[in-house]
Amino acid sequence: MKKIKEEQLATIRQQQTELNSLLNELGYLETTKHGLLHKFAGISQQVEEYKIELEKEYGTVNINIETGEYTEITETEEETPVAHV
Description:
Elements: H1 6-58, E1 61-63, E2 70-72, H2 75-79
């Protein structure tokens, strides 16, 4: 049976080991990413629900998150897509 040189086989084995290690790391990162995306979606849902609560109490307003001050949004502002709470 014919064989490649021992150092060539060692190189192939090292490359395969590195590839497998990287695949494991990528799998870990994807799993972590998946978990973070679920967490992000959950917090986004909480934000939207809280916006509804605040809107019931204060109406449609823009809130300065630094000071807590708010301004009412007029109908013309509502037509313009602006983030509001």
